[in-house]
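Comment thread on ticket #2218

A.B. wrote:
> Attaching the input chain for the structure job we discussed in standup.
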Amino acid sequence: MKILHVVQAYHPAVGGSEWLMRNFSEHLVSRYGDEVTVFTSNVYKPEAFWRTKGPFMPPGIERINGVTVRRFEVFTGLKLLRRLLAQGSRRLNLPYNDWLRTIQNGPIVFGMSKAIANSGAEVVFATAFPFLHMYYALAGARRAGIPIVFLGSIHAADKWGYDRKMMYRAIQQVDAYIALTTFERDYLIQRGVRADKITVIGGGVDADAFVNADGAEVRKRYGWGNGPAVIVLARQSELKRLDILLQAMPKVWVVYPNVHLLMAGARTSYSPQIDQMINALPPEQRAQVTVINDFPEDEKPNLLAACDLLAHPSGNESFGIALIEAWACGLPVIGARVGAIPSVVDEGLDGLLCSYLDPDSMAQAILELLANPSRRIRMGEAGRRKVLENYTWEIVTGRLRAVYTEVISCYHEQVATAPVKGHS
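C.D. wrote:
> Ran it. Output below, let me know if you need it in another format.
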C-alpha cells in the first residue's frame, strides 16, 4: 500500500500528534511492508508557526526508519498582522473568523496541496486540527481523486482552537475519520458528522518498553530514596495546566512532606512562568521538585517506573497518551473530569478523576492514592491489562490500516461503477 501521511511536525519534533504519526508510519513499514511518505513542516515546535522564531530544521527529503519524510519550509511572516486579524475578527464575531484563526495558526506552506495531489498515494491520512495543513491535505487529495482519512484530535474544551465551522465542514468531506475516544466520536456526531464515517481506535504505546522499565537508576540519580513520587508527563504549555498541580502539591506536602514531584516534558515559551511558580515555593518544598526538560523518548519508561502515580491536570486532551503510558508501567492515574479524559479512565478501577482546574480536588485524589499502596497496585495492574488488550501499537495500527483498506476498496468500487462520460 502506498500511503501519504500529512502532519504539522514530525520526529525529531516532540508532541502527541508527532509521536502518533511517527509510530503509525514506522509500524506500517515494518509490520506490513507499506510504502509510507510523510509530508510535514520544518519546525521543531508548532508554536513557531505563530509565536516563536524557531528553531527550524532544513527543508528537504530524508529517510527515517524506512519512512520517507519531506519537510516543507514554513512561511513565518506577518505574524503580528495575522494575530490581530484573528483576535479582532473573533472578538467581533465577523464572518470567516474561523479562517483567519486557522491562517494565524498555520502552518502556511506554499505548494503543499499540489505536492499532495502529485504524490501518487493510494490513500492520504492527515492529523491534526486546528492546523492549516489539514485543509491542504483535503484540497490536494480531492484534486487528485485520492481517498482521504482525517484524525482530528479534537480538544473540545479549547473553543479558540476548535470552535470552527470550517473544521466540521471539512470532516464531512473526508472518506473516513479516526477518533481516539468515544467522547470524540459522539462530539462529532452531535455536529453533523455521519456515525458510519467514524472509527474509534485509541492511542498506542510500545508495551514492552514500558512493562520492562526500571526506575531504580532514576531514583538513585535524584536522591529520592524510598520516598513516594508523583509524576506529571507533559510539555510545559499553558494548556497543560501544570499550575494546578503546583498549587495542589503544597496541600499534599502538609500530609506527606517526603513526596517527590517529577515534572517531565518539553520546554516551551511558557516555561519561564513554570520556573517562577517553582521558585516561589518554600525551600523545603522546592527541594522536592525535580524538573526534567526535553528528555530522550527512550528515557520515558524509566521516568514513569521511578514513580508511584501519574497526575494529569490537563483538560486540553483528545486522548491523553501519558495515561496509557503510565498504565503500561503499572501506575494508577489521576485525570481531570472534563472532555475526553473520563472516556479513557475507568474511575475507581484504573485511576481517579478530579474536578478540572481545582487544586483542592487534585490534592485530595493524590492523597487518597498515597494513603493506600495496595489500591495503587490494583489500579496500576488494571490499567496495564487495559493497555495490553487495547492500546499497543500493533493493535491500533491494525485498526488504522483496516480503515485505509476500506476507503481504498470503496474508492475503486465507485470508480468501477461510475458511468463513462458520453455513455448512458
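A.B. wrote:
> Thanks. Noting for the ticket: The two ends are 34 Å apart (CA to CA).
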